[in-house]
Design goal:
It is built from 11 helices and 6 strands. By secondary structure, it is an alpha+beta fold. It folds into 2 domains: 2-35 and 153-389, no CATH class; 48-140, OB fold (Dihydrolipoamide Acetyltransferase, E2P). Strands 2-3-4-6-5 form a 5-stranded mixed barrel. A hairpin with a 5-residue loop joins strand 2 and strand 3 (79-90). Helix 1 (2-35) crosses helix 3 (142-188). The radius of gyration is 26 Å and the shape is globular.
Length: 394
């Protein structure tokens, strides 16, 4: 018996490695399929070229301020409005190393004054005759963001230990999948809702495997997550249909519609449901893993518990999580648009008028659908975990 118990972790680790290799193969095949052809259909024409002008975004450093005209706007909480004539050294692109003159326009709502030594992002327009001019697009925040992300990684690794490192690997994989697989597939014209659900399920499977290997609790957590995300997708689609709102209700839908006129095949109508799936994924993964992990610990301490007792324990644990996780989802949706909410509230709109607007309807549907998916994941995860964890393995 001792030898069998000692070999179990090693066997599970081998299975986990094989599964991760298979998942990596699927990822590589998906990348090959996506990038083997011209999938973006005119992206460069839409975003980079305007007539006979080539537009590039490059980083630069301010070496001198040639002139400056600024006014203090007390109404905008002492923000500055005006312009600066700058001398900069271009740090990237085809003009790297060259000294150029750049204009910086700023106001309370866009841009900001810069100082000597500041890093900036330039918009460089190159004309057909070879000449170019530069305008400051924004202050270069990449160095600070890189430091901030590094600080997050360090804190997670120090506090979380080995599990924290695994979670960081899963996070990096999630971001990689969203930007290299999901978004390009949607731009290629893949079915928006189905593709988003499939990619999110794949992400959850790989992340759980990285975090805990191929074990009963991780498989139960994955199945619970997939079920919760599925119900969030279903309820989001139903609510979208009856409320008569879709992806066109987003403010950002206008440039996407322009892309469709230019020949891009992206499906805009399903973007609301796709955003619900993505937003619900993290919360559902958290709930599912917490329940399955807790039930495995309970079964380890008291192996005599049957499936009914484990299910009841899982439901008790899940009920304690409903209140906080529901608040988390609703507050996340409201907080993301807090500025616009304040503006709409300040207008004194009537209740029926406020909730008839596409924006409030979209946020309400998103928050409630994600919460429904998360709540339904609790009994599903508890049931699946009770079946898998209490099963006797010969």
């Amino acid at each position: 018996m001792k030898n069998t118990n000692i070999q179990k972790p090693a066997k599970n680790d081998k299975i986990s490695i094989i599964v991760l290799i298979a998942a990596a193969a699927v990822f590589i095949v998906a990348l090959f399929f996506i990038y083997s052809g011209d999938i973006l259909k005119g992206e460069e024409e839409i975003f980079n070229v305007y007539g006979d002008e080539q537009v590039d975004f490059e980083k630069a450093t301010v070496t001198d301020i040639l002139s400056s005209e600024m006014e203090l706007d007390e109404t905008a909480e002492n923000s500055y409005s005006g312009s600066q004539d700058l001398e900069v050294i271009i740090k990237s692109g085809i003009y790297k190393g060259e000294t150029a003159q750049a204009e910086n326009y700023f106001g309370p709502l866009s841009g900001r004054p810069v100082e000597i030594g500041d890093g900036v992002t330039l918009i460089i327009k190159t004309y057909s005759d070879g000449s170019y001019n530069a305008t400051v697009f924004e202050y270069n925040r990449i160095p600070f963001l890189a430091f901030f992300i590094l600080l997050f990684f360090i804190i997670t690794a120090v506090i979380g230990g080995r599990t924290g490192l695994k979670s960081l690997i899963g996070l990096a994989f999630t971001v990689l999948c969203l930007f290299t697989v999901l978004i390009p597939l949607l731009l290629k014209g893949a079915p928006t809702v189905i593709t988003t659900f499939a990619v999110c399920a794949y992400i959850a499977f790989v992340c759980f495997t990285i975090l805990g290997g191929v074990r009963r609790k991780t498989m139960a957590a994955f199945l619970g997550t997939a079920s919760g995300a599925f119900f969030a997708m279903v309820f989001g689609s139903i609510a979208q249909f009856f409320a008569r709102v879709d992806g066109y209700g987003f403010e950002e839908a206008e440039p996407l519609l322009q892309m469709k006129y230019m020949g891009n095949e992206i499906g805009i109508r399903g973007l609301l449901t796709a955003s619900i799936i993505i937003c619900a994924l993290g919360a559902v993964m958290d709930v599912s893993m917490s329940i399955s992990s807790a039930l495995e610990e309970i079964h380890t301490v008291n192996p005599s518990l049957g499936r009914r007792e484990l299910f009841r324990s899982g439901m008790n644990i899940g009920r304690d999580m409903v209140g906080t996780m529901t608040n988390t989802l609703i507050l996340a949706f409201l907080g993301s648009e807090f500025i616009l909410i304040i503006f709409m509230y300040s207008r004194g709109l009537a209740f029926y008028r406020l909730f008839s607007t596409p924006f409030v309807s979209l946020e309400t549907i998103s928050g409630i659908s994600s919460s429904i998916g998360m709540i339904l994941a609790i009994p599903l995860t508890a049931f699946i975990s009770s079946l898998l964890i209490s099963k006797k393995i010969k």
